[in-house]
Amino acid sequence: MARADQLKALLKSHSEGDDQHFYSVAMQVAAHEAKLGHGKLAEELRALIDKAKKKRGVGQPIPIGRPRGGLADLLTVSYPKSRLGDMILEENLAGQIKRVIREQRHSAEILAHGLSPRRKLLLVGPPGTGKTMSAAVLAGELGFPLCQVRLDGLITKYMGETAAKLRQIFEATDHTRGVYFFDEFDAIGSQRGMANDVGEIRRVLNSFLLMIEQDTSRSLIIAATNHPDILDHALFRRFDDVLHYTLPGKEQSVSLLKARLARSSAKNVSWDRLADIAAGLSYAEVSRASEDSLKNSLINKTKNISEAEISEMLAERKNITDRLQRQHR
Fold this sequence. Notes:
single chain, 6-stranded mixed β-sheet, alpha/beta, Helicase, Ruva Protein, domain 3, globular, Rossmann fold
């Protein structure tokens, strides 16, 4: 006989329309019956579960459709096909993302023991280092919709309106399981009491702190910022994990250049020398330089891209970056 916690989990997942959790708990019930020696019943349960999965198409992306009503101005929804193997990351960071994926895939077992899988994440680091891509990868790996929060639709000048819109988003996390991504989070997460603090934004931050703490959905809530130093300190303890992104080191730059250009480059290319030239560039900038090299090759009808051509594109990107940095000093 199913345990009380399993029966409650079955009813809760059914009422929420969470097929993945429902079938996972049902398989636990079947395994429990098998341990008790009820082999025939266990096999019948497994057969019914497999039949239901095929009929309902479990394992396919969770449908959310086009957001309606007020959510239409707040969320941009997509179904990424990105995978972790598409990213080149520092080993510790890759390990953190793998752990989130693993815990989400085994969330039923974790929840059944009174624990919670990681699902509230803060991503910090310079632009172009893979924060947005990580949100897409988590959605792609888990088969969830990626729901990107539109700050232009969220933040208004009217007292209380932004907090009400924020509540709509958190209600959506409960109704539709997905990856909810707040990019440029410092726009609402800056420290309370700063000299340029606006009263409405302070109220929004207070609302966010309360809502994320009270959130018990099974969605992933991800916030990303290029400026962790201005975030309110109270935010950090509201997240299950903080993922730190950095500019690529030499090893990562070599891997990225090879992944983008090895098939089209000349045989005598020194990836180490190119990585030295790329030092200080972000992953996004190295990728753009690689794409520029490929486009030049197509336009010039060059069969193999030379080291000099790649070096020129990297130097060009570096000049652009240096000029932008000087302008912001």
